[in-house]
Amino acid sequence: MWGKDLRPINLEALDRKLYSGLKNKNPKTPLAHCLANKKTIRIGNKTDPFQPVEKELLLSSGSLRLFRKYKWSFVIQTRFTRTARELASASIQKANRLELVTMLPVISPGLEKDWELFERKRTTPISERLEDIQSWVKAGIPVGVNGEPFIPGHHTVSDFEEALKRIKAAGCHRYNTYNFHFTPFVAKRIANLPGIDIEQIWRMNQDKYWKPILMKLLDLAKKHNIILGCPDFVNTGPEYREQANTCCGIDVPNPTTFNTHYFKKYAQDGLNSKEILKKAWDGSGDYEQGRDVVEGKTKEMYTLKDAGVL
To answer: What is the pTM of this model?
Structure first.
């Protein structure tokens, strides 16, 4: 799926899109720029690529074959790790030999209680996800774990540390976190779940409460020798520096660089606004919006001035 497209992917159309994207000498849209520059593709951040229907449609499995065909690097984000192993194990191993694949299984800080409450036990059980992670690590496949979101007022610092310990025990040393995107949609989805105090979550999600929690999470990651991806570039403060080349805590072959993750890194390197924009711009993203974030000229979103690095 591309952009706002919510239809099941057409493999022939994807093949044409990848082929023509690489041949495009004059890209004009952010997506066209990403394709022309062969940026790493992440599948699974909009809908899970290995949910049960994949056994019938085999669309994600077909997509992996196309990525191998074009030697295109990709990330697989999924809560259905067992299905991924059952349907795409050989494809993933072949892609790994070409240094194309990174696995990004999802395990939020609540572990089994989140699996029961939010995932309704429909996904791969947490213990099996950890087994799958261990198997991929032993096979030499790059693995990071997506830990979003940490829900202040629901998750605890102790929950987070337990998640770190279990992920580390599986051989993985990369995790990422982010606070709750408190939108009307998600609020409605969780408001009536048992044990959820929606008002407490809203209150604790405010920066003044979330920031001290986040600093504890950063300290725990350091204590357990975990590379922690954290796209909250403001509340991590001017000193915290991302160790990975993406905000997910993973290193991919060809990341997109026009984002706050790189803006902050370049500012920490001592670059000024003009130098940051020149170095970070790769054609993807909204240039005007990015410039406003770098130069601190917008009230609609946090900027590098809010982060304290410029």
So the answer is: 0.95
